[in-house]
Design a protein that fits this description.
Layout (H helix, E strand, L loop, with lengths): L2 H7 L19 E3 L26 H13 L4 E3 L12 H11 L3 E6 L6 H9 L4 E5 L5 H8 L4 H18 L4 E8 L9 H5 L6 E6 L10 H5 L13 H4 L1 E3 L4 E3 L10 E4 L5 H5 L2 H12 L6 H7 L23 H9 L1 H6 L13 E6 L6 H11 L3 E7 L1 H5 L9 H9 L4 E7 L5 H7 L3 E3 L10 H12 L4 E3 L9 H14 L1
Parallel strand pairs: 1-7, 2-3, 3-4, 4-5, 5-6, 10-11, 10-13, 11-12, 13-14
Antiparallel strand pairs: 7-8, 8-9
Helix pairs in contact: 2-3, 3-4
């Protein structure tokens, strides 16, 4: 199986896996040897991480490697949120895995510190493949994306990988992956010229909100040719992800341990994999009810407030969903991006952000008027009330959330739709920090008047403004439902 086939499997519709107790994974076992990294990739949440930096305990690692092997796993990768070559014990881990009997041991690295000495050490230990993540095909764009001017160094190390393969006679694979953003997408073909003869395969991936930690990817970095609206994920059913603290996570890119389901220092790998918390996650995936989890933002491509699965094992980070670092880097490199013809002022923070909370039980002209006025102010994100949020202050809606979401997404002027999960707007306002919040004047009195006062205070914290177009008189979802009910009663 080549690298592209492995990548495709992670999103393939594999119905044989979709049970609460799927077979223990034969492949797709990733170990986070350390969560330290020497790069700050534009699309990576590592740049915002507040979790304590550390590395895995060797004895624990050897134990979990043996457990996984005894349960049937035959492949293992030593990487996750960090750079594996920062860990001096890396060759020992590879050697141990091969001694246990693992058939395929692999790495992903940014390549910047994969010196000839380190390359020889991991190859001689038995490494079967190494993949360099190179996310731009030239030095200038590389420094912008990676945050470090290491392009030439990586090229030297890549050449040495090929040289040592000839010298050693070892048949390890050399791969390159390019995570494409809207800034590098036009230069995809350059990879085949720049890296010609230096890799067995070059595989591209569209940038996406991996792990759910980077919702700004969908607004600031997503490729224009990427039309994906729903991302299938097989990880809860076919992947073992062990963090450097010794936790079992649903996702290998779990920067703040918000997707941890078990502490493997206290329970066995088997008990963690088939435990109630992991089953709970699988059930949410099977029912597509992921609201409130990080997975929801990744799977459904939206800004999503989220809580950790096991708060006691996660790191609290109030800034984890902030897009400030990404926006500021894009703006700081405006001239460079203009030079390459990929600067988009709308997506780079020049266009104002507008938050519009709505229920939209029955779409009517009042909704259209609000959205039209909002679109004149900037890029519109509709905070669509969930059914539970609506029922907290008025009768249940006629349509469910997903049905209403499809309708709102089709309205001209709406850029994004996210769930408004409570009557209180604070969670979404703090998540987005919009320049404007737009609401009709009807909330000045009634069940939302206290919410209005709170929203005004919150928006003032960052200089945001509340805009209140005149409420469209004579029509509302409630009035329309009453008319229908009267007509039905009369008939």
């Amino acid at each position: 199986m080549d690298l592209q086939e492995r990548v495709n499997l992670k999103k393939a519709n594999r119905t044989e896996l979709y049970t609460l107790e799927p077979p223990f994974p034969y492949t797709n076992f990733l170990v986070e040897t350390s969560n330290a990294c020497n790069h700050e990739c534009l699309f990576c949440a590592h740049q915002k991480m507040k979790r304590k930096v550390g590395k895995i305990d060797s004895e624990f690692l050897y134990n979990v490697l043996q457990q996984a092997y005894d349960l049937g796993t035959r492949e293992v990768g030593f990487y996750a949120t960090g750079e594996p070559f920062l860990v001096k014990e890396l060759p020992d881990y590879i050697k141990k895995a091969k001694e246990i009997g693992y058939e395929y041991v692999y790495l992903t690295s940014n390549g910047s510190i994969a010196t000839p000495e380190k390359i020889r050490a991991v190859i001689d230990a038995g490494l079967d493949s190494i993949k360099f993540s190179i996310n731009a095909p030239n030095r200038e764009l590389y420094e912008f994306i990676h945050g470090h001017d290491d392009f030439d160094t990586v090229m030297e190390h890549l050449r040495y990988l090929n040289q040592y393969r000839k010298e050693s006679g070892r048949n390890y694979k050399i791969y390159i992956t390019g995570i494409l953003t809207r800034f590098t997408e036009p230069y995809k073909d350059d990879y085949f010229k720049v890296f010609y003869g230096l890799a067995d395969q070059i595989v591209f991936k569209y940038v996406y909100n991996q792990g759910g930690y980077m919702p700004e990817i969908d607004t600031l970095l997503k490729c224009y040719s990427d039309g994906e609206a729903f991302r299938r994920c097989n990880l809860p059913f076919d992947a073992i992800c062990v963090t450097c603290e010794g936790y079992l996570s649903v996702e290998n890119a779990d920067f703040e341990n918000m997707l941890v389901v078990a502490d493997l220092n206290k329970v066995s790998l088997k008990d963690g994999w088939y435990g109630e918390k992991m089953k709970e996650v699988r059930r949410m995936f099977l029912d597509d009810k992921l609201c409130g989890t990080l997975c929801d933002g990744c799977v459904h491509h939206s800004l999503r407030p989220a809580k950790p699965l096991m708060p006691e094992l996660s790191t609290d980070n109030p800034d984890i969903f902030s897009d400030e670092k990404v926006r500021s880097r894009i703006l700081a490199h405006k001239e460079l991006l203009q030079k390459y013809g990929v600067y988009d002022g709308v997506q780079s923070g020049q266009k104002k952000t507008v938050y519009v909370p709505m229920a939209v039980d029955i779409l009517h002209p009042g909704h259209i008027n609000i959205i039209k006025k909002s679109a004149e102010l900037g890029e519109v994100t509709v905070g669509l009330f969930t059914n539970e949020a609506i029922e907290s202050y008025k009768p249940a809606p006629v349509m469910d959330y997903e049905t209403r979401k499809v309708i709102v997404e089709s309205i001209k002027g709406v850029a994004h739709v996210i769930p408004q999960m409570t009557k209180d707007y604070e969670p979404n306002l703090r998540l987005m920090k919009p320049d404007y919040m737009v609401h009709g004047t009807d909330w000045r009195s009634g069940p939302l008047s206290d919410v209005r006062e709170k929203a005004i205070k919150i928006m003032s914290e960052w200089g945001g403004q509340i805009v209140e177009p005149e409420y469209t008189q004579g029509i509302s979802s409630s009035m329309l439902k009453e008319k229908v009910q009267k007509r039905d009663s009369a008939s």
